[in-house]
Fold this sequence. Notes:
Layout: H1 29-33, E1 46-49, E2 52-55, E3 60-62, H2 66-80, E4 106-108, E5 117-119, E6 128-130, E7 140-141, E8 145-147, E9 151-156, E10 159-164, E11 169-175, E12 180-187, E13 190-200, E14 213-215, E15 220-231, E16 237-246, E17 248-255, E18 258-265, E19 274-276, H3 282-294, H4 298-301, E20 304-308, E21 314-318, E22 325-328, E23 336-343, E24 352-357, E25 362-365, E26 369-375, H5 385-394, E27 396-404, E28 409-418, E29 427-430, E30 433-440, E31 446-455, E32 458-468, E33 473-480, E34 483-489, E35 492-499, E36 507-515, E37 517-523, E38 528-536, E39 542-551, E40 559-567, E41 569-570, E42 581-583, E43 588-595, E44 600-609, E45 612-619, E46 634-635, H6 652-658, E47 662-666, E48 677-681, H7 683-691, E49 701-707, E50 713-721, E51 725-732, E52 742-748, E53 754-760
Parallel strand pairs: 4-25, 22-24
Antiparallel strand pairs: 1-2, 3-22, 5-6, 7-17, 8-9, 9-10, 10-11, 12-13, 13-15, 14-19, 15-16, 16-20, 17-18, 18-23, 20-21, 23-24, 25-26, 26-27, 27-28, 29-30, 30-31, 31-32, 33-34, 34-35, 35-36, 37-38, 38-39, 39-40, 41-43, 42-43, 43-44, 44-45, 46-47, 47-49, 48-49, 50-51, 51-52, 52-53
Amino acid sequence: MHAKLHAPTLRTVIALLVAFVLSTAACSADDELGGSSTSLGGNDDSLTIDGNDISLSSALSGFENCDDLLGHLRTEGQKWVTAYGFNESPFGFGPERMMAVDGAEFAEESMDVASTAATDEGGDDGAQFSETNTQEVNVDEADVVKTDGQRLYVIAAGKLSVIDVESRDVIGQIGAPDGWKTELFLSGDHLVMVSQGWTEMSSTAGISEADDAYYDWSSGTNFVRIGRYDVAADGTPTLIDAMTIDGDYLAARAVDGVARIAVQSQPQARIPFVFPTNPNSTEAALAANQAAVAESTLDQWLPSLAFTDDTDTLTETTLPDCGSVHAPNEFAGPGVISLINLPLDRDAATATITEVIASGSLVYGSTESIYVTTTNWFDVTPLDDVSFERFMEARRTSIHQFSLSPTDAAYHASGSVPGNIRNQFSLSEHEGHLRVVTTSNGDVSESFLRVLTERDGTLTEVGVVGNLGKGEQVQSVRMTGDTGYVVTFRQIDPFYTLDLSDPTNPTITGELKIPGFSSYLHPINDTTVIGVGADADTSGRVTGAKVSLFDVSDPANPQETSVWVDPNSNTDVGWEHRSFLWWEAERIAVVPIANYETSWAGVVILRVDGDQLTELGRIDHLDLNEVRGVTDCYALTRDDLSPEGQQIFDTEFAYLLDENNAMLRCGPGDTPAMTGYDCNEDSWLQEEAVRLGVTFAAGEYLLNCWDNRNNMISISRSMVIGGDELWTVSGRWGYLDPSVSARVQVNGLTTLDRLAVINLEPARADMEDAED
């Protein structure tokens, strides 16, 4: 938003936060909006700092036609363009315009989280299996691993692998698209795979050499690919069709068989901006960029879309129909958010898409609505520390509600709340009310739970409770039905219980102060909550991983009845809740742990027995009997260099060879790997090797391999299949990188005996540019 300040002593311009709005409105939503803004009604939509009014209007407006839309984009773009386009420097936004994007989690709140178990009623033996640990039971989340109890689908090592549970064999594979952050949905024999990719671009316009500016030679654009696959009876996956859209993949959820995929794109790479080479060329570059915005076209602002069918027929278009585009009343950033609604069992071309002119932050969804939060983009110049603190205290987060239909969504209402929202678990919809936990930062931070409901198109606050962790920050939130739990932390962990039964009067019913904090809360029934996080000493210094068992049977007197700690370790559950597993049938929790002091990583299996936590054991993916250094390839030595090459020590190849890296010459029939080592195919190192006298026959190539002894093999996902087997998936440091190997392991659920190991190796083409 724009702050209209007129004080004569303005010193610096600080744009504090980037706004984010995600519309899921169908074209019919324009009729609802009528092309005009929606008032916030009873919400406070302005603030005053030292006599200066700042607008806080947060509703969305539609556009009558494409000319109106383009005019809006050009006008707002002129206000914000710099000598580096929409960036403050060649590297992005500088301190004068701080980006505050939270990762755009597209998430849902659970009303029933007692168990993530599912029963495969179609199986002959009624086998049980666990599903993805989601925030809401009836809302699936895209993930790197899925199972139907008969087969396991894993995205790792640059491939989608189909593993038969009974035989524990890989029965089908297909290459995953080049890129990163690849995830999938499973619906019967249909798969939808979403992945992030990158395409290099170059500017096509600029200013003359006399102006001393240069093109952004390293520019490029991200794109999201959505592929639909069928899986045959023998396990072979086949690509049916695909769609590609410019932008960054934020997240995806599926409700009643319809995937909702959120994508954010930026016009920075599509508008032909130039950069200055030195301070003297800044004005020339700015003038050129202003001209580029003035002459910009819709296809430079809005992302392009391409469809590919099973015959490889390509259809390209620009999105979307201008009538389905919306924008906040005040500028919310130059980005474009697209929401793609795709039925999992229908052609990609049947997807509906709606867009909003804004940059991304946070999305929450229930089975009935999607809520989008927007922290406003201010142009503010604090006159002194006092006014800055007042501004920080007065910031609000806008929230927009969209109602879901079987295939679409429609804009419904808008509102705002003071402060910032931590993550997806800070929001929860229940019986027509939205509960939101926020933190306001001023001289002393304070957190609140606010209850909103829709009244005449406005999300109006009907209840609030504060005094949650004054001077502290929210670490975790969980709300189920009429009950809420909030954890804050600075030096000790206040664990709060809240009564949400009366939306107009939410209350704090109990508080427990203990060392450490829980970064993830998982209610296993109405009286017991598992907290996963960190232990800490009395000064607030984190000392290791911690799992707590809370008895909340008396909300006024919550108790920590049992604690498990692992010094000098940590867990990623707080930022990746899908890595946590609760299996109700055996009353066990599976928690990933990494200990950087001992270089051990794996999972710990904890059983809840009454009010106690008991460690049953641990599982890792180490090869205890591995013989290191085994390879099909030929290991080069200095003797393989020419006499002249042996005298050259100023090359990277010679340096790595002396540092005990394994330099392998591999042929077409060799497995490009060495046991106990990570390997990377580097063509430039091969060129150096040739220059030093190493010979390569046709088809041979060089692998650079390094000892991975200190690289922890972290387990990133766990699942129960068959009711008595624990299946785990691992990769280096927990990442299922397409360029490195991964492992699927089967252990007895209660015995923890290792039953099977399935290694997934990358193909040669996937190994370029691998990173440790």
